């Protein structure tokens, strides 16, 4: 069973997937930084607020002695929308990468048939019948 697991783990496709997963996670951090540092502030200009802090308050909270609001119930739609934008950017870039890799792959040529072709056999039969 250990040998089977080793064979499975060392297959080329599994290693490729693992490398892609790690690169995707690192790329996601870059995209999150781009969205949080560049896209969100630009969109925040439209709403005249910090985009990630936009929320719809369902129940008002009460400020405690330290000034922290407790008991507030809110829908943080700005943070959600930022994450949706992150996802769309990552999905688009991954689509472009897969498209480029598929374009670079050489089309597989069909293996030449072993032995004579049908035409060769038919020609041989025809010639034999002529004799």
List the SSEs and their pairings.
Layout: H1 2-9, H2 12-47, E1 56-59, E2 62-63, E3 69-70, E4 73-75, H3 77-104, H4 118-130
Helix pairs in contact: 2-3
List keywords for this structure.
4 strands; 131 residues; mainly alpha; 4 helices; two-stranded antiparallel ribbon; 65% helix; Non-ribosomal Peptide Synthetase Peptidyl Carrier Protein, Chain A; elongated
Describe the structure.
The chain has helices at 2-9, 12-47, 77-104, 118-130; strands at residues 56-59, 62-63, 69-70, 73-75. The chain is mostly helical and 131 residues long. The strands form two sheets. It has a two-stranded antiparallel ribbon. A two-stranded antiparallel ribbon has the order 2-3. β2 (62-63) and β3 (69-70) form a beta hairpin. The radius of gyration is 30 Å and the shape is elongated. The N and C termini lie far apart (63 Å). The mean pLDDT is 80.
Largest sheet: 2 strands, antiparallel
Anisotropy-based shape: elongated
CATH architecture heading: Orthogonal Bundle
CATH topology: Non-ribosomal Peptide Synthetase Peptidyl Carrier Protein, Chain A
The separation of the N and C termini measures 63 Å
| Oligomerization state | single chain
The CATH fourth-level homologous superfamily:
Large-conductance mechanosensitive channel, MscL, domain 1
Strand order of the largest sheet: 1-4
- Beta-strand portion reads 5-15%
Poorly predicted runs are: none
Number of helices: 4
Backbone CA Rg = 30 Å
In round numbers, the mean pLDDT is 80
The total tally of domains equals: 1
Number of extended strands: 4
What are the secondary-structure elements, in order, as H or E?
A: HHEEEEHH
Question: What's the CATH first level?
Answer: Mainly Alpha
Summarize the amount of helix as a percent range. Answer: 55-70%
